[in-house]
Amino acid sequence: MSLSVRDLRIDIGGSRVVDGVSFDVPSGSRVGIIGESGSGKSLTALAVVGLLPRGARATGSVTWDGREILGIPDRELAEIRGSEIGMVFQEPLTALNPIRRVGGQISEAARIHRGVRGADAHTLAARLAASVGLPDPEEIVRRYPHQLSGGQRQRVGIAAALAAEPSLIIADEPTTALDVTVQKGILELLGSLVAEKGVSLMFITHDLAVLAQVATDAVVMERGRIVEAGPVAGLLTAPAHRVTQGLLRDSKATLWRKND
């Protein structure tokens, strides 16, 4: 299944924050959207799954497997979210429900979209927890989010996104709040899961070095517009736009500080 975005525009409070964005995420591909804070990259991702903030209006076209999904009723889009498109959010502590056990949150999409219930849901949650490298999964699924570390919570978020076996995972800056060691593990996990399961990945980030670890192609955004696009290898070796050049300098500086 492939995703196609054409001439996407997003307006909030009379201001255009995304303007004419177009890109594709072919089946089985790994595509990044990169840009500085305020570039519109996360809003673009949220528009795809119909989760824009109140007051935002999106126009243009978003097709999923050839079907137009931009502007369809939320009940129809809810059938696609989770079952066909999984979402991993930037801050798992706020994305997860603090008063629900981890296991129920991991298996939620499978309960809603696949009819998995009871002991089967618990078994699925534990299996997914194990698949994303969580220690002692039978114990982990009985815990609450605040009882886990930041890296463990992010792995829970990834497990939840995989529960209903989606064809596309959208990961919105999933490593931003994590230290470098945990970040490396999360990136390796996403890469291996995408390779093993054959799902597509749309990865949102502001860090070109991070993007290079998980994506093969990317679009670069500035002030709501795409300013450069192409293979990540080319963006790393011969960035054409000043924004991409600045992101590369920032990535190199970050790597230098981490290795210092």
TrEMBL record:
<dbReference type="InterPro" id="IPR027417">
    <property type="entry name" value="P-loop_NTPase"/>
</dbReference>
<dbReference type="GO" id="GO:0005524">
    <property type="term" value="F:ATP binding"/>
</dbReference>
<dbReference type="InterPro" id="IPR003593">
    <property type="entry name" value="AAA+_ATPase"/>
</dbReference>
<dbReference type="InterPro" id="IPR017871">
    <property type="entry name" value="ABC_transporter-like_CS"/>
</dbReference>
<keyword id="KW-0997">Cell inner membrane</keyword>
<keyword id="KW-0813">Transport</keyword>
<keyword id="KW-1278">Translocase</keyword>
<comment type="similarity">
    <text>Belongs to the ABC transporter superfamily.</text>
</comment>
<keyword id="KW-0067">ATP-binding</keyword>
<feature type="domain" description="ABC transporter">
    <location>
        <begin position="3"/>
        <end position="248"/>
    </location>
</feature>
<dbReference type="InterPro" id="IPR050388">
    <property type="entry name" value="ABC_Ni/Peptide_Import"/>
</dbReference>
<dbReference type="Pfam" id="PF00005">
    <property type="entry name" value="ABC_tran"/>
</dbReference>
<protein>
    <submittedName>
        <fullName>ABC transporter ATP-binding protein</fullName>
    </submittedName>
</protein>
<keyword id="KW-0547">Nucleotide-binding</keyword>
<keyword id="KW-0472">Membrane</keyword>
<dbReference type="GO" id="GO:0005886">
    <property type="term" value="C:plasma membrane"/>
</dbReference>
<keyword id="KW-1003">Cell membrane</keyword>
<dbReference type="InterPro" id="IPR003439">
    <property type="entry name" value="ABC_transporter-like_ATP-bd"/>
</dbReference>
<dbReference type="GO" id="GO:0016887">
    <property type="term" value="F:ATP hydrolysis activity"/>
</dbReference>
